[in-house]
Design goal:
138 residues, mainly alpha, Globin-like, binds protoporphyrin IX containing FE
Length: 138
């Protein structure tokens, strides 16, 4: 990610943060619509799940300029995801649902430049998670 993209993600996240609960509702609705096979991996009661998603997203966005500071956090998250049943091929639908939810719920939507910056951010975190998942499976 370029420094500009990092600032772009942080700025647009500030716009969506006040409506974070709509963001997470829309995210899971879209994820389960496009990838219904992953629904059973998640708890039936999704409230605390949504809170955790938003908390983690905030922590990651705040630390985008120093993602290495989150190495251990992301490695731990990735190892737990192996136990949840997540596989590398699930990151594409999750990323699609995230971008869709951001576009739908961010006040005034996302510009193409903002969309590209979020795609880059999600890609970097996905790479870190998948690396750990693949290596911990070996
Ligand atoms: C960058 C990508 C992702 C991030 C940042 C992320 C983040 C999180 C967080 C913070 C939690 C809360 C529980 C915990 O901290 O361990 C969680 C739970 C979960 N995630 Fe993810 N996740 C990502 C991708 C995925 C993918 C690709 C899947 C595949 C379907 C997935 C499936 C799950 C499931 C099933 C749970 C709930 C487990 C339970 O509560 O029983 N996640 N995720």
């Amino acid at each position: 990610m370029t420094p500009n993209q990092i600032e772009t993600v942080k700025d647009s996240f500030q716009r969506v943060a006040p409506v974070a609960s709509s963001l997470s509702l829309t995210f899971y609705a879209e994820l389960f619509r496009i990838a219904p096979s992953v629904r059973p991996y998640f708890p039936s009661e999704m409230h605390s799940q949504r809170v955790k998603l938003v908390d983690t997203l905030s922590a990651v966005v705040l630390n985008l300029h120093q993602l290495h500071a989150l190495n251990d956090t992301i490695a731990g998250l990735a190892k737990r995801h192996v136990e949840y049943g997540a596989r590398p091929e699930h990151f594409a639908p999750v990323g699609h649902a995230l971008i869709y939810a951001l576009k739908q719920t961010t006040p005034n939507g996302l510009t193409p430049v903002e969309t590209e910056a979020w795609v880059a951010a999600y890609g970097e975190i996905t790479d870190m998670m998948v690396d750990t998942m693949v290596n911990s499976a070996a």
